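User: what does the whole thing look like in 3D?
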Amino acid sequence: MSASIHIERASKVYDGAVRAVDRIDMDIREGEFFALLGPSGCGKTTTLRMIAGFEQPTEGTIRVSGKDVTGVPAHKRDMGMVFQNYALFPHRTVRENVGFGLRMRGIDKATVARKVDRALEMVSLSAMGERRPAQLSGGQQQRVALARAIVIEPRVLLCDEPLGALDKKLRQQMQFELKELQKTLGVTTVFVTHDQEEAMAMSDRIAIMNGGRVEQIGTPSEIYNRPKTRFAADFIGDTNLLSGKVVERDGGKVLVVAEDGFEIPGADHHPGGVVHAALRPEKIVLHPDESDAPCIVRGRIDSANFLGDSILYRIALPKGRHVLARAANTAHSRMLPPGAMTRLDWQPSDLVFLAD
Amino acid sequence: MSEAATAPAALTSDDAAPRRTGPNALAWLILPIALLFALFFVLPISLMLLMSVLTGNPMFEQGVRFTPENYIRFASDSYNWEVLWITIRIGLSTTLAALLLGYPLAHLMARVHSRTGHALLLIAVLAPMLTGIVVRTFAWMAILSDTGVVNATLMRFGLIDRPLPLLNSETGIVIGLTHIYIPYMVLTLNGVISRIDERLEQAATNLGAHPLRAFWEVTLPLSVPGILAGSLLVFALSISAYVTPLLMGGFQFMTLPLLIYQQISASFNIGFAAALGIILLVISLALVIGYNRVLGLLSGDRDLT
Ligand SMILES: Nc1ncnc2c1ncn2[C@@H]1O[C@H](COP(=O)(O)OP(=O)(O)OP(=O)(O)O)[C@@H](O)[C@H]1O
Ligand SMILES: [Mg+2]
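Assistant: Here's the predicted 3D structure for the full assembly of 661 residues, as structure tokens:
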């Protein structure tokens, strides 16, 4: 039985001074794979520990399936946690580690053995049952930690950067396996990571955190295509941040990017003070310069990086700033050489205006 | 498993090779301590061992022979066994008391997060060590005597009719020894407990264990090496204590160290005293060996890979 989690204006202040988490709101739905994404020190672990009950929020409430759990001790919360360093019991075998939660629930030996067998099978570790954690590789330890957390069929699965210590290949494989397992079990999962690709690949929704606050919550595509803040736009993927003023001209709106010396027509934003906007590199269309053809701005190719599936260009704008543009590597595309002049164009609707 | 086993072996033999080619300059640095050890430990103990199996002092007497006489004398007199038993009993009680009182303190010290809190606890543990044993023992005598603070208070509130025999009793000796040797227990335990990751306990509670159960299942077993080491230390120290059993016991309790002193100063029976000293040493030695065995058993299968 899965649970929903509602966090309302929760804060955590350490030692009366460090605001690790600052008035965050989150609604995590039943069965959802929800990622907390943000740079180091932004409060991800603290948020997770408040949900698990290891920390009490300094203010605000946390409700699980509608019931206020603020003040409910960790051992009564029925949540499975995978710790950042796995926290496997070093003096116990793999089987004993996995069976621990069941034993604490007073379940009889035969049932424990059966469930442990099944959990170990799920994470393909059936042969390692009698080993101690120190006798396992990092990836195997990670899977034991996962098995230990899911075998109790928790209402919520909490994972704190569980794949952080693994190499890239194993990491991708584990991402896939974990996601599959989560789908099969249908358990509400809160997954902490500072790896944006991991968050994008696995999550139903992502909360972008920064400095103890939530910057944006949304599906991976929402956050990628419609970032709300400069931080969110910059943190996920490559992005070009532009700032300027929107003015009305000839009945239409124009964004005047004064510092780079160009204007973007069709700006869908109300006129006024300085606004910020994000433009993804792949939305920029490059044409070799033919001096008379219309375009938004011209630039000179500074460098071209061949990335396999695409080519990433760094382009110098007239006033010296650089933007990134990504061109798909198709059969008939040809690479623009550094030093070449190019026209940059994009759809006005690809420009995303940011809240701050 | 086999690669894992061969890899470190290969490593050690690799970097051991250059070391064998010439004398290591650093090795000479242990020379002073080695000399000190030989002079103040190996020499006196060898002499003691020698004295315990000789009929007299070869420096002053003629016709000195080897003899097991001193040990036979010890074994054949039930009084000596009684003394040995009292000594061990006092050692065990002190160790148990120091463990029961010291463990919670060591645990608190290991888990307290604020620096000031930790510093205060450390001072509290170390402060008693800054005053001499004799001073502390006299303080206990003032507190525990028939008219002392404890008995006076209990009688004032009518909880007891007659003063409890706190002083001049085995209880008194154990109280005094516990106070003196508890820092060794706390510091040893603290070293081990603070190396146990707190998140292990949290993982246990997360899996549904009450905090006490988490302690019992995780922290306690993992601190066994500290419990053993601390107990060993306190036991060895308290069976060889002299001042406290003398003063707190009111000259009524004979322990091995007291008996040794009596044999030397009153009976001039140096051979017998030496035999008693060796017996004391053997007990401690046996404990150290036992300790290593138990640790080996506990960690043996963990180091298999
Ligand atoms: N027990 C504590 N006492 C004081 N400050 C703390 C404590 N735990 C965390 N902090 C502070 O709170 C902030 C958030 O920490 P948290 O561990 O939640 O970050 P995080 O997002 O998980 O970072 P990382 O990605 O590095 O794990 C940090 O500035 C950290 O220094
Ligand atoms: Mg963290």
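In plain terms: Residues A 14-15, 18, 20, 38, 40-46, 194 surround adenosine-5'-triphosphate (ligand 1) (CB under 6 Å). Chain B has one domain: 77-304.
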